[in-house]
Design a protein that fits this description.
- With 224 residues, this protein is mainly alpha-helical.
- It has one domain.
- Helix 1 runs antiparallel to helix 5, helix 3 packs across helix 4 and helix 4 runs antiparallel to helix 6.
């Protein structure tokens, strides 16, 4: 009887967790639905290069700032990263984009871990919070690594990881597994004027998972 009750509690917690995920996704997606078309024009690759082309000493700050504020307002990340590649080349441009994307992930993770826990308990109850902890303890690294190339999901998953108190070092390593391929793939595409956006997207989407697998394997071998 107790086992059955525990199982039903787990199912209820998962439903509550899913509701929180959908709610966060709606909140993050709302600015895209309202202002997305305008910001796509405002911060397109060509517009960014034209605006920042004469200020290379400071353009990297603009790129990082845009990638970070994507947590709050709709910013076309891939266009910003491609502009960094055009301005600074694939290596430095990719490095600048990596810094911006990592900072965005850390802000979402840190703010949710520090301030979001009471709100999550109020919205989905202790069962939902515990279910989130179990999910991110078992599969959090895969979720974080695989979500980086998708719209909206990186912000949502970063916040969920913070709410679930996913270990900080694991979150950072998983995030880097997804961020680095994304940053350097689109910076390279911008620099060389790649006319194969689908190939760039496929590389950014598929590389994070084997990278995270290698990191996990190395960590497992290093653990006595």
């Amino acid at each position: 009887m107790r086992t059955l009750a525990t199982r039903f509690a787990g199912i209820d917690g998962m439903i509550r967790l899913l509701a929180l995920f959908i709610g966060l996704a709606v909140v993050v997606a709302a600015p895209f639905a309202i202002w997305g078309e305008h910001t796509d024009r405002l911060w397109s690759t060509a517009a960014l290069v034209e605006t920042a082309g004469d200020s290379l000493a400071y353009a990297w700050l603009i790129i990082i700032a845009l990638l970070v504020v994507d947590l709050l307002i709709p910013v076309p990340n891939t266009a910003v990263i491609a502009a960094g590649g055009i301005l600074y080349g694939p290596l430095l441009g990719g490095a600048v984009a990596t810094v911006g994307l990592v900072m965005a992930g850390l802000v979402g993770y840190g703010a949710s871990r520090r301030f979001g826990r009471p709100v999550a308990r109020w919205l989905i109850g202790e069962d939902g919070v515990e279910e989130g902890e179990r999910l991110f303890a078992n599969s959090g690294g895969w979720l974080v690594a695989a979500s980086r190339w998708l719209p909206i999901l990186p912000e949502v998953i970063s916040c969920m990881a913070g709410l679930a108190r996913m270990p900080f070092h694991r979150f950072v390593l998983a995030m880097l597994s997804g961020v680095i391929p994304l940053a350097f793939a689109f910076a390279t595409a911008g620099y060389y004027g790649a006319d194969r956006p689908l190939l760039t997207l496929v590389l950014a989407a598929l590389l994070p998972l084997p990278v995270w697998y290698v990191i996990r394997s190395l960590q497992a071998r290093a653990t006595p």
